[in-house]
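ENCODED BACKBONE
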Amino acid sequence: TMVPDRCFALELPDCTLAHFTLCAHAPGDPPGACQDARLAAILGSPGRNYSLCVPLAPDAGSGARVRAAKLHQRLLQQLRRGQFQQCQLRRLLSYRPGGQPGSAQHGFLLHDPWDCLETRRALIELLRACKEIPHPHLGEFETDPHGQLWQRLWALQDGRQLEVGCALVMPTQEPPLHPVLPDLPSSVVFPSREAARAVLEACTSFIPEVQAVLDLVDQCPKQIQKGKFPVIAIEGLDATGKTTVTQAVSDSLKAVLLKSPPSCVAQWRKIFDDEPTIIRRAFYSLGNYIVASEIAKESTQSPVVVDRYWHSTATYALATEISGGLQHLPPAHHHIYQWPKDLLKPDLVLLLTVSPEERMRRIARRGMEKTREEVELEANNVFRQKVEVSYQRMEDPSCHVIDASPSREKVLQTVLSLIKNHCN
């Protein structure tokens, strides 16, 4: 059996992924309907389906990845406006089989339930305006009288729309690991300071604050060591009592309380939170290295408590980038859950948890403005579960889970007991 050149992973409403490929239908081959009922239901549903993926060369560096991410974000914003508001939008991932880094291309499947001619015209105009794509292609799906699914591929050449290919949609085997996983170390879960720095360095031309962040990072020594006093990182979703517990622990231990990102860069959080994931995660990753230098200094004189650290950066990145449900996360003990080798480790990581219902009650009482991630946690139960499971799979150091539902005094007692047992 020939290995397909390129496959696709489509996120379905039940948070599963349907994988398919495209192949030529040789004359004389007997016609047959698509064997995946889920694909047939989505791609062959009444109306019209269009596919669009942002191209990325297999050997693309940080600059190309940043440009592709910015283009993907711009297309997403456009596909939620105007003529497209009547359409349904799904995540579509294009990839080469074999789990090779650099093969994943992010895109969209747009379903127009009314099969409106204006939708096609708006898509063509949208592609025409995307000068970053040398030869933009638009896929269009249709079902023939035999029940077979086809994709017609359209291209813009000299301003004209031309059909450049037609292929049969065929289900293909799901790969052992999520196809985007090989790209995560160079895009969102950075294994080193330099990997994250390379991404922000590619943003200096359009984000003025980037240079100030890079300057602060470069002032931090690359080789640092923790002092003799313990360092405790406290993690958890918003409204799990993290702020209260970190302050109480700090007071009890007479410890220095630090936050990641540190105050010297936290003033720019809103700017980076509005950027694509690759830029946002590079910013938070470098914030961890800046706070690490503060930890090294302060831990020579007193205990240190850190409000969030690397685990937060990695877990939210995984939950965002891995499409589908919990079953598509990297398996336990995968290297993506390992702490970066060049980042100072805490002695103990505590993960505060409460039930989803209790967390929502606390959020309602606080009445505070919600971050983008907090809105996602509320609206998407699967996203929240992926964050929580990713936290629990982190290794070296792993997270000690603490039920933060009891009274503040009892939670503090539990935390201090753990610190005493693990940090002498």
